[in-house]
């Protein structure tokens, strides 16, 4: 009998690729063969950013494969058939998919292959998505996912209340097309949960106990961390780590808004001036597409005035930055990967959510875990520099946020150690895959 062989397939988005790739690397270290399938567009970005990012020198058990963008069940079936025909006894034994790719699980079911999903977002959101049929039945949302009225609901007696206007498929979505796609994604997640033999989540029991109690089939295996963050679409600028070495302990403001967030020029300038006014060292991750006409976007004289105090880079080795002793706080869009990386590093957060799940994460960060502060986005419009500066100073001036973050850090670290809940769940998955 050959090795267990997992075909992992992902939505072609940075926040989805990273956790699935990190989980794949962890499985490979336990002797499981991985074929990682990406869309052609994501595959090109991944390979160009870091050709050797997913391989250790002594590990050749992860193969990257690309298929055309979009839903491609017939092509995926052909990929599996080709592997099974040419790979000797190492046939595909499990399809591991992003929950939004229910069609991939349907292919696996048809081919009598075991099926698992890995959620790249919070377990509470899996519970929310699985509640959609009931929410429609009782009239809280329509057939298209739109709330019938603004109200507060509870998914279970112990899960924190949620505003219907903050459902992940509509929150802060100005585009009808995006709303449609996000709701379709939620419906596909529901289908995947029914098709999957295992429902895994990059979360932790200590973060969301009520969600795991509500649906015990969801197994927390996070935080998923490898020695190097894998799955990046942009090359890391590791020079920032040497710059951090020169800064005082807990002095640096780290700013990164993920792979998709954009600012208009007015907001970009207000934020730049807020960083300048704080008079603290900072690292600001500014992707080339973060704002239009980037070379002209900075306030006049900004770069000269902040001098060596401010470092602007296009992409950061985020996990290593957050673990650095010089980092004081993290200004974030509240993506789930960023949230988990900050929590396991004990770094307090300043939350600036933009859409979808980010508002849910913001609520947990500020109101449940109490490890950060956030802005009131419901009012819309421009966030003024003074508002941003005041929030930063409030966050950095109150040690309770860091104390709470360090408390969660200890719990998360213990959970992924041998004997911890997430570690034990991970090992149970490894053993299941090898059966």
Mean pLDDT: 92
CATH class of the largest domain: Alpha Beta
* CATH architecture tag of the largest domain: 3-Layer(aba) Sandwich
CATH third-level topology of the largest domain:
Rossmann fold
CATH level-4 homologous superfamily of the largest domain: Glycogen Phosphorylase B
GO molecular function: quercetin 3-O-glucosyltransferase activity; quercetin 7-O-glucosyltransferase activity
Pfam family, one: UDPGT
InterPro entries: UDP_glucos_trans, UDP_glycos_trans_CS
Family: Belongs to the UDP-glycosyltransferase family.
Keywords:
six-stranded parallel β-sheet, 18 helices, seven-stranded parallel β-sheet, 15% strand, 435 residues, alpha/beta, Rossmann fold
Structure characterization notes:
Its EC number is 2.4.1.-. Pfam families: UDPGT (PF00201). It comes from Dipteronia dyeriana. There is one protein chain. With 435 residues, this protein is α/β, with parallel strands linked by helices. It has two domains: 5-124 and 176-225 and 418-434, Rossmann fold, CATH 3.40.50.2000; 239-412, Glycogen Phosphorylase B (Rossmann fold, 3-Layer(aba) Sandwich). 43% of the residues lie in helices and 15% in strands. The protein contains 18 helices and 15 strands. It has a seven-stranded parallel sheet, with helices on both faces. A six-stranded parallel sheet has the order 12-11-10-13-14-15, sandwiched between helices. Helix 3 packs across helix 4, helix 4 (102-110) runs parallel beside helix 7 (176-195) and helix 10 (265-278) packs across helix 16. Residues 53-58 have low confidence and may be disordered.
